[in-house]
Design a protein that fits this description.
Length: 332
């Protein structure tokens, strides 16, 4: 039986940590303050967590102070205290810690309202050469520059991330670079960048790049190349990109009078059960079957789209069902 007035396990741990903090031990006290901050944050005592992290920062310990400053910055940002978050992150940056300073610089870049300040923060992370944070900062910098129309600067930033060969950031940068180059009309450069992402084999970015490559090739009337790209994505089995590629491939095959290929592609997407793409595939399958004169099959496909409740595909299918046997609309 628990005794009335006793401390619970959390309170006991807090008390023990506070004793260590009060001891002033040069190593154990800062670590205890950091741990107390984490404990309080986990249980929703954000004001108490701030006080504990600030205590760890004030000790000036080479490891615990910058670690606490990063956590304090993230906590303050989450609470809407952006000025306080910037101050805490800057403390971590100023510490020069090999890992935490670049991490804080990336966080600060995301937080900054001023594009110039964000560029400076990302530059700190990039210049650190940190294996993870520098490529992340380079991708963020590329997105920032692209957003303000500095396309040459964005390309340079993305290329930095690609050159890092980081397992996640390099493929992401390659996709971004490919999309950017395509928007500028540099189709050969876009293909090259997207192919880099595909060749990386990244679980998410490679299929995404292959979808983009298929769209790019289709727009340039390289239909065979587009089919190959879409098939790569379908074969990857990616939960989102494979259904998208399947719809794209089905529409492409339909347009090229490859009706069997189109039906197969649409049916694969329908069978995937993807919330967005399966209803679209069902609608397109209805259009295909109607074009082939299979009105009963078209109705079955349209009904699938209607039953899905999809905001676009269901509405289109209802319209077309009222007009059978003629249909002029296709889902993109």
């Amino acid at each position: 039986m628990a005794r009335s007035g006793g401390q619970g396990p959390v309170e006991s741990v807090e008390h023990a940590l506070q004793l260590l903090i009060d001891s002033g031990d040069v190593d154990r006290a800062p670590q205890a303050a950091f741990n107390l901050g984490v404990l309080r944050e986990d249980r929703g005592d954000f004001a108490g967590a701030e006080a504990a992290y600030q205590c760890a920062v004030d000790f000036g310990h080479a490891e615990q102070a910058p670690k606490a400053a990063v956590n304090l910055g993230v906590l303050r940002q989450g609470r809407g205290d952006f000025a306080g978050a910037e101050r805490a992150l800057q403390l971590a940056i100023d510490s020069g810690h090999a890992d935490l300073a670049p991490m804080a610089a990336v966080n600060l870049g995301v937080l900054c309202d001023s594009q110039e300040a964000a560029e400076r923060a990302y530059g700190v992370a990039i210049d650190s050469g940190h294996a993870d944070q520098a490529p992340k900062a380079a991708v963020n910098l590329g997105v920032l520059r692209e957003g303000r129309g500095d396309f040459a600067g964005a390309e340079r930033a993305y290329q930095l991330a690609i050159d890092s060969r980081h397992a996640d950031m390099a493929p992401m940068a390659a996709v971004n670079l490919g999309v950017l180059r395509e928007s500028k009309g540099d189709f050969a450069g876009a293909e090259q960048a997207l192919q880099l992402a595909i060749d990386s084999g990244h679980a998410d970015q490679a299929p995404k790049a292959a979808v983009n490559l298929g769209v790019l090739r289709e727009g340039r009337a390289d239909f065979a190349g587009a089919e190959r790209a879409y098939q790569l994505v379908i074969d990857s089995g990616h939960a989102d990109q494979a259904p998208q590629a399947g719809v794209n491939l089905g529409v492409l095959c339909h347009g090229r009078a490859d009706f069997a290929g189109a039906e197969l592609a649409f049916q694969l997407v329908i069978d995937s059960g993807h919330a967005d793409m399966a209803p679209k595939a069902a609608f397109n399958l209805g259009v295909l079957r109607e074009d082939l004169g299979d009105l009963a099959g078209a109705e079955r496909a349209y009904q699938l789209a209607i039953d899905s409740g999809h905001p676009t595909a269901a509405a289109f299918a209802r319209q077309v069902m009222l007009q059978l046997p003629s249909c002029e609309h296709r889902m993109p």
